[in-house]
Amino acid sequence: MEGYRDLERRIKFRKVKSAFVLFLSFLTAVYGIFWLFWIIIDVFSKGFQNISIDLILQDPAPPGVEGGGLKHAFVGHLIITSLATLIGIPIGIAAGIFFTEYGRFSKFVDFLRTMTDSLVSLPSIIVGTAVYAIMVKPVGHFFGLSGSVALALLMLPVIAITTAQILKLVPDSLREAAYALGAFKWQVIKDISLAAAKRGILTGVILGIARITGETAPLLFTSFNNNFTTYNIFDPMASLTVTIFVYAMGPYEDWHRKAWAASLILTIGTLIFFIMAKYLLGKKK
Question: Do the Cβ atoms of 223 and 237 come closer than 8 Å?
Fold first, then answer.
């Protein structure tokens, strides 16, 4: 009888402890969601009223003069991120294929995967300073291509790890059946593994693009900024993130309004990428 009561007390204590931890988890979730919605609502309320077609199509006015737009930043941001995706996507997918299809049982590849995992959470400013030391300093000036390389290095681990994890979910029986029919390894990878995992890989690509869309720190050390529209990737090039930072810190109210509008456009773009990724991932499941 005493043992039964002791068991009952322990069960009650565990229930109370579980309820307390659950309550703490609920509070932290509410805290995070509150600030997320506060930021989104603030950006929408202050940015929506300042959005106009001139913001996208016109070059910036001289400092202190109202009017103009941020065409130089939109063009530069599009060029830098497009080049980054062209560099990062093929290398990231190839790395993921190598991790799963060629080095699944290799200790050295396990070490490389661990290093790639750690790079996912690497602060972006470290990547920016590394690219600055390797590419910018030897040349002697900032240029847009170095910004693309820095962003590609940030998105590469996300795509590589996602590709490797998705390919591991493909049943080995499909590969074995293809080998039994006389297929070469490259044919198995192309027609079996990648075909079965293409939606999950696409999700990783979208997440990688969303990862780099709002980065500022690496671009400050690489492409830097430019007050004029340029298409030359070997010159300093403006970007939305750096321009938002400069305008938000500037002394002019017109700059602040343009910074809010550009922030809203950037936020909407990033949200669209994440929603697409969640949709594709849910459809895959």
Answer: yes
Give the span between the Cα atoms of 144 and 87, in whole angstroms: 14
Asked if 25 and 96 sit in the same domain, the reply is: no
Of 266, 238, 243, the residue nearest 256 (C-alpha): 243
Same domain, 140 and 175: yes
Q: For the whole model, what pTM was predicted?
A: 0.86
Domain span at residue 25 reads 2-50
What sign does the dihedral 253-255-259-262 (CA atoms) show? Answer: positive
Phi then psi for 68, rounded to 5 degrees?
Answer: 80, -175
* Radius of gyration for the chain, computed over Cα atoms and rounded to the nearest angstrom: 24
Task: Taking the CA atoms of 21, 26, 27 and 29 in sequence, report the sign of the dihedral they define.
Answer: positive
Write the DSSP string, 161-210: HHHHHHHHTS-HHHHHHHHHTT--HHHHIIIIIHHHHHHHHHHHHHHHHH
pLDDT tens readout for residues 175-201: 888 888 888 888 999 888 998 888 889
Residue 220, both tokens: 């400050």
